[in-house]
């Protein structure tokens, strides 16, 4: 089965030498986190060596993957991947023929004409990135630059994609027809929704430009025009198409599932963050990723206005981005008649069964496994987990949850042992044992006796095992990623990421990414608790219980090992407080 790729459209530029300006830069691959690149290039690192895969046992790789696809996979289970593949093998786009096709073309031309007056609000985003080095967490990778698109909204603000300014060290904006680049400040980054908000302090930037207005969620076959600065030239580019699908889709940046638009207008590298206009010249979305597949052409994805407005209003309400809440449950469909009878559902009752409740979720106090959720905020849920969505359409009930804000209350009706109960639950952000991102912070680490301890995250796995980490990482780590739930808010999965060779740790050189279970018989809750226990230990030996039942001892040799490997500190700054 061929592999399905969704990708973001940030335009790659160049690696920036630390001792030179942008004029003296060398090429770098299109960013691993979702740009459209046709040729893979090894990523430069501080020590000059390309990153290699760590050893590890995992699931077998999928067949049919093209080596030239340099894109990050959607972090989801194989079952979810299969569903997406089935969806895109079917009615992937709206096929128009004859007069209908001619009418769509005319509508697209009209939409482009309407969007023309608003093009002055579309800007080009230049960003210098310095990504963390998860293999050597005490330093960063070599900086590189990229370009993408953005647009001006009210309140002296600019919107673009989160992945366009991820790990930024400097951001500049250039208006259409201008030769001046203005320094920008990042106000907020919405990692889950892949949106970032910027501003410019220079008053000259805001002269002679009108902010864009947002339109309503478009309907199927509505004409859209995507405007931005994609690869292939330096001037503004316009592509037109129609809305071919509206559904909950996976946002490749951190694999969250939110409402999205599928369009047949081309979204290429550099289009990321650019607006999508309707036929009235109003912005109906932000271009952010595309589908690369041998059986598909011109399939792009747009962040729709409900998600954009949620991000903006969240920032205005809280002064910072707080995220999209979830119901902390694992659920299954109730389409099987015997399963419905086993939980006491009547013939006219519909809903979804709770398989597990996350211990860190506020609703864990009221919801229980085997409860059947019948409705959310008064909207009935079908046996397949969908709810009504506009005329003749249905959508996953997670859409209702995503319309809420972190800390909001929701009314849930459940069926428990043939009795209908109603609960008021508080919604919160998702707490994962292995988080999908580190929110722009440097990775945490702790070193003792040459053993480097780190907290596992999805970016860490991607750095260690590449874009196919879901198949190349050790099985035990993958099991934690896909199925484990955090038992407390501050729980982390701590591993020995590597061993810095020294006389004190002879025999342990082969330890790589092995989970730390306990220290001197006490469970390890997170990296900070491990560091505190080791620093406070007065015993002669340090004993670490690992996943493979190996032990080691040493503390006095740590300073010599740090000096040998030119490491400034034995722990990251966040562990010192």
Automatic annotation (TrEMBL):
Pfam families: PDZ_2 (PF13180), PDZ_3 (PF17815), Trypsin_2 (PF13365). Residues 342-427 form the PDZ domain. Residues 40-50 have a biased composition (Polar residues). Residues 1-86 are annotated as: Disordered. Residues 65-86 have a biased composition (Basic and acidic residues). Residues 1-13, 53-64 have a biased composition (Basic residues). One of its GO terms (biological process) is proteolysis. InterPro entries: DEGP_PDZ, DEGP_PDZ_sf, PDZ, PDZ_sf, Peptidase_S1_PA, Peptidase_S1_PA_chymotrypsin, Peptidase_S1C. Residues 434-574 form the Protease Do-like PDZ domain. GO terms for molecular function: serine-type endopeptidase activity. SUPFAM superfamilies: PDZ domain-like, Trypsin-like serine proteases. Keywords: Hydrolase, Protease, Serine protease. PANTHER family: PROTEASE DO-LIKE 9 (PTHR45980:SF18), PTHR45980. Belongs to the peptidase S1C family. This is Protease Do-like 9. It comes from Solanum verrucosum.
């Amino acid at each position: 089965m061929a592999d399905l790729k969704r990708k973001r459209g940030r335009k790659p530029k160049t690696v920036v030498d630390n001792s030179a300006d942008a004029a003296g830069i060398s090429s770098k691959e299109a960013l691993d986190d979702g740009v459209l690149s046709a040729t893979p290039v090894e990523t430069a690192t501080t020590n000059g060596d390309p990153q290699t895969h760590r050893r590890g046992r995992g699931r077998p790789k999928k067949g049919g993957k093209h080596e030239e696809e340099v894109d990050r996979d959607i972090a989801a289970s194989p079952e979810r991947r299969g569903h997406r593949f089935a969806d895109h093998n079917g009615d992937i786009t709206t096929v128009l023929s004859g007069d209908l096709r001619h009418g769509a073309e005319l509508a697209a031309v009209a939409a482009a004409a309407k969007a023309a007056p608003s093009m002055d609000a579309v800007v080009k985003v230049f960003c210098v990135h310095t990504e963390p080095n998860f293999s050597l967490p005490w330093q960063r990778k070599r900086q590189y630059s990229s370009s993408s698109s953005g647009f001006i909204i009210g309140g002296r603000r600019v919107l673009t994609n989160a992945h366009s300014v991820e790990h930024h060290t400097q951001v500049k904006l250039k208006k259409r027809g201008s030769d001046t680049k203005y320094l920008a400040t990042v106000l907020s980054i919405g990692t889950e929704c892949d949106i970032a908000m910027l501003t410019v302090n220079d008053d000259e930037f805001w002269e002679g430009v009108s902010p864009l207005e947002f339109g309503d969620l478009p309907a199927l076959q509505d004409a859209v025009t995507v405007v931005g600065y994609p690869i292939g030239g330096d001037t503004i580019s316009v592509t037109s198409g129609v809305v071919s699908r509206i559904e909950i889709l996976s946002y490749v940046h951190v694999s969250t599932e939110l409402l999205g638009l599928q369009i047949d207008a081309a979204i290429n590298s550099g289009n990321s963050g650019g607006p999508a206009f309707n036929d009235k010249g109003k912005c109906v979305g932000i271009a952010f990723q595309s589908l690369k597949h041998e059986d598909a052409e011109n399939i792009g994805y747009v962040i729709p206005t409900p998600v954009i407005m949620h991000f903006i209003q969240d920032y205005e309400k809280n002064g910072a981005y707080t995220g999209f809440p979830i119901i902390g449950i694992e659920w299954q469909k109730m389409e099987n008649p015997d399963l419905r009878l086993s939980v006491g559902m009547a013939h006219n009752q519909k809903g979804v069964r709770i398989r597990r409740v996350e211990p860190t979720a506020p609703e864990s106090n009221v919801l229980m496994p085997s409860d059947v959720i019948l409705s959310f905020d008064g909207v009935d849920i079908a046996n397949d987990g969908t709810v009504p969505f506009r005329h003749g359409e249905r959508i996953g009930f997670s859409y209702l949850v995503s319309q809420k804000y972190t800390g909001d209350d929701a009314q849930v009706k459940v069926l428990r042992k043939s009795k209908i109960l109603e609960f008021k639950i508080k919604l919160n952000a998702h707490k994962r044992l292995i988080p999908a991102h580190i929110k722009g912070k440097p990775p945490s680490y702790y070193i003792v006796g040459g053993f480097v301890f780190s907290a596992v995250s999805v970016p860490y796995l991607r750095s260690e095992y590449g874009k196919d980490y879901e198949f190349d990482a050790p099985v035990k780590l993958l099991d934690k990623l896909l199925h484990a739930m955090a038992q407390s808010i501050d729980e982390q999965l701590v591993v020995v990421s590597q061993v810095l060779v020294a006389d004190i740790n002879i025999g342990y050189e082969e330890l790589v990414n092995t989970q730390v279970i306990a220290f001197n018989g006490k469970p390890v809750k997170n990296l900070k608790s491990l560091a505190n226990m080791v620093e406070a230990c007065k015993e002669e030996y340090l004993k670490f219980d690992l996943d493979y039942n190996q032990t080691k001892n040493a503390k006095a040799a740590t300073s010599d090992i740090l000096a040998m490997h030119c490491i400034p500190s034995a722990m990251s700054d966040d562990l010192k407080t």
